[in-house]
């Protein structure tokens, strides 16, 4: 075809799209050691089980933070049944491909949770599904009013559908790809800016994502978008995206970030950041208390 792109202009130069893609081990940049095109367990490993009703297997990424923040919010609201053990799943070392983890989440992604307060136990995976499960189990942070419930679920699903553009799209090409590709960065930066404008416009007339009521929609959205606003995700991204221009979004991000349960939950299972601001595993409130005391000293 006369108008076909010149392979010399591709990245890498000369790359020609094959008719059938073939996996080449090691082709994956920062995540080459764990990415693969098949599912299932790679090794036998039994998951540990603690003494609390809720057993969480996770890592302190934005998706993992959603669940630990939710559990801390439930405990702060007086729901003792939400006591939990949080076990760290080191995805960089392939813990998510252990037989025990695959047994509760065949998709091998964190977080995954098992509720031992019921017989038989119930396993839940996907962070949004876990939030809904916990909200319904404890009757908290999910409005019963039909209109507010619908709005909460809509914003929750917005986050689930939108965040991959922020993380796997913008975050990957901005921070993790083995070389910079302007087309990819521009493409995803534009989409993330659009998403931030969606949030900023909505929050101009709403204190939280659903009016004046704090819900699982806030719990889901804050770790991803609030994390970028705080500078916790993708070094330099807040400046690059000019986060400061979204005044209403920043007001919301700051308010949610000041909640005690949010500050506690975001420390759990962390695998990055200052060592003295991590709670690798959580088996009681004291585990977080000790780290918080050092941070506040």
Automatic annotation (TrEMBL):
Q: Which residues form the GST N-terminal domain?
A: 55-142
Domain (GST C-terminal) ranges = 145-282
- Positions of the UniProt region annotated as Disordered: 265-284
Show which residues constitute the signal peptide: none
Q: Name one Pfam family in it.
A: GST_C_2
EC number(s) per entry: 1.8.4.-
Keywords, alphabetical: Oxidoreductase
One GO molecular-function entry: oxidoreductase activity
The record's listing under InterPro entries reads: Glutathione-S-Trfase_C-like, Glutathione-S-Trfase_C_sf, Glutathione_S-Trfase, Glutathione_S-Trfase_N, Thioredoxin-like_sf
* Basic and acidic residues composition-biased segments: 273-284
NCBIfam families this protein is in? PRK11752.1
Protein name (database record)? GST-like protein
Q: What is the lineage of its organism?
A: Bacteria, Pseudomonadati, Pseudomonadota, Alphaproteobacteria, Sphingomonadales
């Amino acid at each position: 075809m006369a108008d076909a792109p010149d392979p010399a202009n591709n990245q890498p130069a000369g790359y020609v799209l094959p008719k059938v893609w073939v996996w080449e081990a090691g082709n994956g940049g920062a995540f080459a050691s764990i990415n693969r095109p098949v599912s299932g367990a790679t090794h036998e490993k039994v998951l540990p089980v603690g003494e609390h009703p809720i057993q969480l297997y996770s890592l302190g990424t934005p998706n993992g933070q959603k669940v630990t923040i939710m559990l801390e919010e439930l405990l702060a609201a007086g729901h003792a049944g939400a006591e939990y053990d949080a076990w760290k799943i080191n995805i960089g070392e392939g813990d998510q491909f252990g037989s025990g983890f695959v047994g509760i989440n065949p998709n091998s992604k964190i977080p995954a949770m098992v509720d031992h307060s019921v017989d038989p136990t119930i396993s839940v995976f996907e962070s949004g599904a876990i939030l809904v499960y916990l909200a319904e189990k404890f009757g908290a942070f999910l409005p019963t009013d039909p209109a507010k419930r619908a709005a909460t679920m809509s914003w929750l699903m917005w986050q689930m559908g939108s965040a991959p553009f922020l993380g796997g799209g913008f975050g990957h090409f901005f921070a993790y790809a083995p070389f910079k590709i302007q087309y990819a960065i521009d493409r995803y930066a534009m989409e993330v800016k659009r998403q931030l404008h969606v949030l900023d416009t909505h929050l101009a007339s709403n204190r939280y994502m659903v009016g004046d009521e704090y819900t699982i929609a806030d719990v889901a959205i804050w770790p991803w978008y609030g994390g970028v606003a705080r500078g916790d995700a993708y070094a330099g991204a807040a400046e690059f995206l000019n986060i400061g221009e979204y005044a209403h979004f920043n007001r919301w991000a700051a308010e949610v970030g000041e909640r005690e349960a949010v500050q506690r939950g975001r420390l759990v299972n962390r695998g990055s950041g200052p060592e003295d601001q991590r709670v690798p595993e959580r088996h009681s409130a004291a585990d977080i208390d000790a780290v918080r005391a050092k941070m506040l000293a």
